[in-house]
Amino acid sequence: QLYREARECLTLLSQRLGSQKFFFGDSPASLDAFVFSRLAPLLKARLPNGKLQQHLKSLQNLCNYCTSILSLYFPWDGGDPPSSAPRAAGADGSEAEEDPHKRRNQLLSVLVGLVAMLGYAFLSGIVSIQRGSAGPPGHQPMALEEEEEEE
Which residue spans traverse the membrane (predicted)? Predict the structure, then answer.
């Protein structure tokens, strides 16, 4: 029943679109963004059960609609992304060109974090440094409570 309703919805969308470029004429509206966000993955993704995908592919105007929006707003979809988009690190070392000081910055951020944590530990009293006394060898310094008890 779910497939039947989805097929009916696609058919109704196809009828509503007709031969127009967008649902409300020649310029896109929020409905176009919403419909495209649902149709494009259905059209492009590999699905385990392709019944609905096959029905969408049979509705040529919806396929043309998706293709038109993809080529208009996502021209790099079929090939390389635009130069302003972040690139993945390639085998040719293109990552080094993007940020030559990346490794140094990572190391510095780790060191700053470590210093901050140690500073907090010392200031809050979690960690303290006790100096040994210059007393005779083998003599352990007394804790504050032991000194108070002796008096």
Answer: 107-129
Comparing CA positions, the residue from 67, 89, 86, 87 lying closest to residue 78 is 67
Strand partners, 25: 22
User: Could you identify the residue written with the tokens 């967008």?
Assistant: 22
Residues 6 or more apart in contact with residue 68 via CB below 8 angstroms: 21
Does the pTM surpass 0.70? The reply is no
Percent helix, strand, coil in the chain (nearest 5)?
Answer: 60, 0, 40
Q: Could you tell me which of 43, 33, 32 has the C-alpha nearest to residue 77?
A: 43
Where are the chain's structural domains? 29-75
Rounded Cα gap, residues 10 and 5, in angstroms: 9
136: alpha, beta or left, given left = phi > 0 and alpha = psi -120 to 50? beta
- Contact yes or no for 139/133 (Cβ under 8 A): yes
Mean pLDDT, consecutive 10-residue stretches, the chain (151 aa), reads 91 93 90 93 87 92 92 71 50 56 85 86 82 62 52 51
